[in-house]
Amino acid sequence: MKRLISILIAVFVVTGALTAQNSGRSKFATDMYQAKHEMIIEELGLTPSQQKKFMPLYEQMEREIYQVNRNARALASEVEKKKNPTDRDYEVAASALSSTRVQEGDIEVKYFEKFSKILTKKQLFQLKRAEAKFTREMISKQKRKN
Fold first, then answer.
1. For position 58, what pLDDT does the model report?
2. Which of 1, 23, 79, 104 has its CA 20 to 30 A from that of 95?
3. What is the dihedral of CA 136, 137, 139, 140, to 10 degrees?
4. Is the CB of residue 32 less than 8 Å from the CB of residue 13?
């Protein structure tokens, strides 16, 4: 179950990173990206003016988070491919994987400040709720498929 949640979260982050790359995006990634952003717009009740200001920032935040995770996964992948990884190799990869959440949090805090100039206090609160709701719905849909 934890693995499924991690995979789904990674998919959400990937879809955000793909926002800047329309041409290479899969239909699944495009659909996930659109669904998540539509839910956020709806749940927060964003005005057209807020959407215009907020969504590019939100997409930028998603790309930064994606990059942090991508870098950590790349280090882990390198270790897995080595025939005889050293303890230092394992340590570096484990540290990178372990620090991703802290880095994600730092990125979110940085963008929270930017979002607070666009969104109301209530919308700032609703943002995290909308993201969690989207994740729950995706997990629920995945469970129904299996």
1. 95
2. 1
3. 110
4. no
